[in-house]
Amino acid sequence: MKFEEPVTEIIQRAYNVKSFRFNRPEAFDFKAGQYITVTLDNNGKKTGKPFTISSSPTEREHIEFTKKLTGHEYSNLLDAMGTGDTALISGPFGKMTFEGEYEKIALLSGGIGITPMISICKYATDMKLSTDIMLICSDKTEQDMVFTEELEDMKKENPRLSVFNTLTRASENWKGCRDRICSNMIEREIPDYAERIFYVCGPPPMVDSMMDMLHEMKIPDSMIYKESLTGY
Ligand SMILES: Cc1cc2nc3c(=O)[nH]c(=O)nc-3n(C[C@H](O)[C@H](O)[C@H](O)COP(=O)(O)OP(=O)(O)OC[C@H]3O[C@@H](n4cnc5c(N)ncnc54)[C@H](O)[C@@H]3O)c2cc1C
Fold first, then answer.
1. Which pLDDT score is estimated for 232?
2. What is the pLDDT of residue 43?
3. Are 56 and 138 in a shared domain?
4. Ligand 1 atom 27 nearest Cα
5. Residue pair 69/62 in contact by the 8 Å Cβ criterion
6. What are phi and psi of 133, to 5 degrees?
7. Which residues line ligand 1 (CB under 6 A)?
8. Separation of alpha carbons 131 and 158, rounded Å
9. Which CATH number covers residue 56?
């Protein structure tokens, strides 16, 4: 489906991350984990890029995507957008989906790879699914963490949702984990990992190293969904 909609709301999530919301056309259906392409017009030059939908299929009023701002051309164009400015959206696309079909899942996100995980967690929470969710988020610093309040709110509503954060370049004040996601961490934080379906999302080097790790842990491809945020 293709539609042109004005931006209805912009949410600053971090110093370099913004969410953009649009009215959701009634006919626009998607599954948690999928992505759209967003095409912007820069004086006649049209550029489209893919973004995972960071809202949930249960949110009927709006769809949202969340962009890490890079200072490059497309990013600056988006950053300069205000409410009322329009974008051409097409989708949904992508095979990394969650519809409540699994009893236990493990979500591994690197940086802005949190976006599909937020959609999945919100969907499971709103639908009051029995799915047990363990989300491990890896970021560089405290300033790079996004959606922390939203996850805290979801945890209050959903006792089956657990979140573990690790920061690889945290400040001295950070009391939590500082390691990259590794097999020891998975074994410690998700002891029943072999029974779970894995969802992996992040920049390509992160996704590649997670795939190597999961293969070494004898997790078959049939138990892994992945989305590589190519373009970084
Ligand atoms: C399925 C999918 C889902 C995605 N979901 C998201 C999402 O939810 N959120 C999100 O933020 N992104 C997402 N992405 C990535 C997104 O589509 C963009 O590729 C990304 O945001 C970078 O776009 P950009 O225009 O800011 O940077 P680009 O200009 O495309 O830059 C991308 C890379 O090229 C390098 N580069 C570009 N120009 C120069 C230059 N002049 N000199 C040196 N290096 C340069 C940059 O360092 C960077 O590494 C997704 C990608 C895919 C495939």
1. 64
2. 87
3. no
4. 72
5. no
6. -120, 130
7. 35, 49-52, 65-68, 70, 72, 74-75, 112, 115, 227, 229-232
8. 10
9. 2.40.30.10
Low-confidence spans in the chain with pLDDT less than 70: 232
Helix (H), strand (E) at residue 22: strand 17-23
> Tokens 């996850």 label which residue?
151
Ligand 1 geometric centre to CA of 173 (Å): 31
How far apart CA 203 and CA 216 sit, in angstroms, is 20
CATH of the domain at 216: 3.40.50.80
* Strands 62-68 vs 132-139: parallel, antiparallel or unpaired: unpaired
Rounded Cα distance, 188 and 186, in Å: 5
Q: Which residue has the tokens 């893919």?
A: 50
Radius of gyration of the chain (CA): 17
Residue with tokens 């945890």: 155
| CB of 165 closer than 8 Å to CB of 173 | no
Per residue in 6-31, is it b (16+ CB within 10 Å) or e — as a string? ebbebeebbebbbbbbbebeeebebb
Nearest CA to 8 out of 74, 86, 84 is that of: 84
Helix H or strand E segment including 28: none
pLDDT of residue 231: 82
User: What's the DSSP call for residue 142?
Assistant: G
Supply the pLDDT for residue 125. 98
Q: Ligand 1: distance of its center to the CA of 21 in Å? A: 19
In eight-state DSSP terms, residue 222 is: G
Domains of the chain: total: 2
Answer for the pair 125, 226: CB distance below 8 angstroms, yes or no: no
* Planar angle of CA 146, 147, 149, nearest 5 degrees: 120
